[in-house]
Amino acid sequence: MKWNQIPLGPLQTNCYLLSNEQECIIFDPGEEGSKLIQLIQQKKLKPIAILLTHAHFDHIGALDEIREFYNIPAYLHQKEEKWLMDPSLNGSKSFLAGQSMQMKPADFLLTDETELELGSFVFKLFKTPGHSPGSVSYYLESERMLFSGDVLFKNSVGRTDLPGGNEAQLMKSINQHLVNLSADTIVFPGHGPVTTIEDEIASNPFLR
Predict the structure, then answer these.
(1) Considering the entire predicted model, what is its pTM?
(2) Which intervals hold domain Metallo-beta-lactamase (predicted)?
């Protein structure tokens, strides 16, 4: 299994490409769609789906461009179903001067904590609200890889001062689902460097 971390847009939001042979999953295409497409073409990958950890503007900016170019579906939790179409919910109205993001609806809405099988990839879906109501984390158990979005970062956790944020809920999500994963699980956050569960338990001040 191979992966690439591509920081995109003014907030340098991490987009990830997870590939197995030629099949590829795209996580959070935040912006700079042409740059992302160029990289995918260079690596001769075949994207089969887009997984969104949540629907804040900095994680969805290139969503329509990518899914239309490759004709692939996008997955999002049901609680943020309307966020893709509503600039006031996805934050673009407040944070992007003169620019409001309105994307097409997600192709598939996630609801239950279950296994999500896409081609040769099998993810465990964790509902991890707190940063936003519909935040989810995708766990590839076979490779001990966790795509946490803006829930857990290296030495930090997601902000909870945005609409729908809840600090107590965020910490419950982390303690219930993430810190009990295998210590060598690699954490792929929405911003900043990758880390591990072991390192976060040892050094993250929010987890003490």
Answers:
(1) 0.97
(2) 12-191
139 alpha carbon, distance to own chain's centre? 11
| 118 closest CA partner among 137, 147, 138, 144 | 138
Tell me the per-residue pLDDT of 39-77, one tens digit each, with 9 for 90 and over: 999 999 999 999 999 999 999 999 999 999 999 999 999
Is the model's pLDDT at 33 over the cut of 90? yes
Number of domains into which the chain is organized: 1
Q: What CATH number does the domain containing 73 carry? A: 3.60.15.10
Question: In sequence order, which residues have a C-beta less than 8 Å from that of residue 40 and are 6 or more positions away?
Answer: 17, 24, 26, 47
Give Cβ neighbours of residue 7 (< 8 Å, ≥ 6 apart): 13, 14, 15
Tokens coding 71? 């004709």
Residue 148 in tokens: 């946490």
Can you name the residues that pair with 132 across neighbouring β-strands?
none
Tokens at 104, concatenated: 């097409």
For residue 96, name the pLDDT band (cuts at 50, 70, 90): confident
What the block records as the tokens of 52 is: 């969104």
Residues with Cβ within 8 Å of residue 110, at least 6 apart in sequence = 75, 76, 77, 78, 116, 125, 136
